[in-house]
Amino acid sequence: EVQLVESGGGVVQPGGSLRLSCAASRFTFEDYAMHWVRQAPGKGLEWVSLISGDGGSTNYADSVKGRFTISRDNSKNSLYLQMNSLKTEDTALYYCAKGNTAVNSPIDYWGQGTLVTVSS
Amino acid sequence: AIRMTQSPSSFSASTGDRVTITCRASHDISSSLAWYQQKPGKAPKLLIFAASTLQSGVPSRFSGSGSGTDFTLTISCLQSEDFATYYCQQYYSYPPWTFGQGTKVEIK
Question: In whole angstroms, what is the distance from residue A113 CA to residue A115 CA?
Fold first, then answer.
């Protein structure tokens, strides 16, 4: 079955940076769009960003646009999220999630998440 | 952005009950709707996509219906393992891909 393992979370001060990684396995990574979705403590799901299979197309939520950058390395079956200028409201569990070959498709697998805490 | 509104936000039910959760989109999304189940401390799990197509391995007591702006998730006979929070998500118009606020199903 599809496996997605996130890493890179931690505690960071406001204004700081963090880079999340997601190691993917058991599917042909380069064929699929990938998402980052976050969940603040006790809250619902918020879509953050998407990247197409070849990495040529990216999208961002307005709340992170200009601060976060999604990327992927298909040779390493890895997805990344570079987070700069972090704010306290970015505190959340960040999930790496697999889309489908078409961008307008649901998320069918999720990782277990990595926790990002932004606090002074 | 398309806004997704679920109702109710939470409710209590008993094992064996038939339960229905509603999701309303602020604009027509055709059938581009998914339902997810999330248990405490776990990642969400895809239950239904294209409004009514059951994901492989999901029990048949789960069903989805609707198109356009109004959708429902029905659990025909609630089991103990179904107590969880359920989210709808539209993938018709993006960005952003938007989720409903969630519906928590609790034990009565």
Answer: 7
pLDDT surpasses 90 at A101: no
pLDDT value at position B48? 98
Instruction: Residue window 30-59, chain B: list those with CB within 8 Å of chain A.
Output: 32, 34, 36, 38, 42-46, 49, 55
Contact B94 A104 (CB under 8 A): yes
d(CA A98, CA A42): 23
pLDDT of residue A110: 98
Match 């963090």 to its residue by tokens.
A18
The single residue listed with the structure tokens 């409201």 is: A89
Distance from CA of A58 to the nearest CA of B (A): 10
Residue A40 banded pLDDT, cuts 50, 70, 90:
very high
- Tell me the two tokens of residue B61: 């007591």
- Which residue, A11, A2, A94, A116, is CA-closest to A48? A94
